[in-house]
Amino acid sequence: MRIDKFLKNSRLIKRRSVAKEVADKGRIQINGKLAKSSNTVKTGDLVKVQFGNHTIEFKVNELQESTKKEDAEKMYEIISDERKI
C-alpha cells in the first residue's frame, strides 16, 4: 500500500493530499530511508513522520484498504511521539 494512502486510512493524517505533500517535502522515512508518497509500506515497517515540531515514529501492524474509526488504531503501534518546544 502507498504510504500516503496508509497515513490517510490509519487516520494519522486526515487527507491523502496532505499526506502526499508531507512525503514529497521529505518529512517521511520508511525503515530509515526517505520516502516519497508513492513508496509502498508493508507490515512490520518502521515509519517516521515529521510535522513541524512534532515527530512520530510507528510500526505498521496491518494494512486495510478501508477502515472504520475504531479499527484505524489497530493498523499501527506508536514507538515514539516527540514534540520539540
UniProtKB/TrEMBL annotation:
Any one biological process term the GO annotation gives: rescue of stalled ribosome
Pfam families (alphabetical): S4
Instruction: Show the GO MF annotations.
Output: ribosomal large subunit binding; rRNA binding; tRNA binding
| Gene3D superfamilies on file | RNA-binding S4 domain
Q: Does the keyword Protein biosynthesis apply?
A: yes
Indicate the segments forming the RNA-binding S4 domain, all copies.
Answer: 1-61
Please name the SMART domains in this protein's record. S4
Superkingdom to which the source organism belongs: Bacteria
Keywords, in A-Z order: Protein biosynthesis, RNA-binding, rRNA-binding, Stress response, tRNA-binding
| Protein's job | Key component of the ribosome quality control system (RQC), a ribosome-associated complex that mediates the extraction of incompletely synthesized nascent chains from stalled ribosomes and their subsequent degradation. RqcH recruits Ala-charged tRNA, and with RqcP directs the elongation of stalled nascent chains on 50S ribosomal subunits, leading to non-templated C-terminal alanine extensions (Ala tail). The Ala tail promotes nascent chain degradation. RqcP is associated with the translocation-like movement of the peptidyl-tRNA from the A-site into the P-site.
Report quaternary structure and partners.
Associates with stalled 50S ribosomal subunits. Binds to RqcH, 23S rRNA and the P-site tRNA. Does not require RqcH for association with 50S subunits.
Q: Which family does it belong to?
A: Belongs to the RqcP family.
The protein depicted here goes by the name RQC P-site tRNA stabilizing factor
Q: What is the scientific name of the source organism? A: Tetragenococcus muriaticus 3MR10-3
Q: Which gene encodes it?
A: rqcP
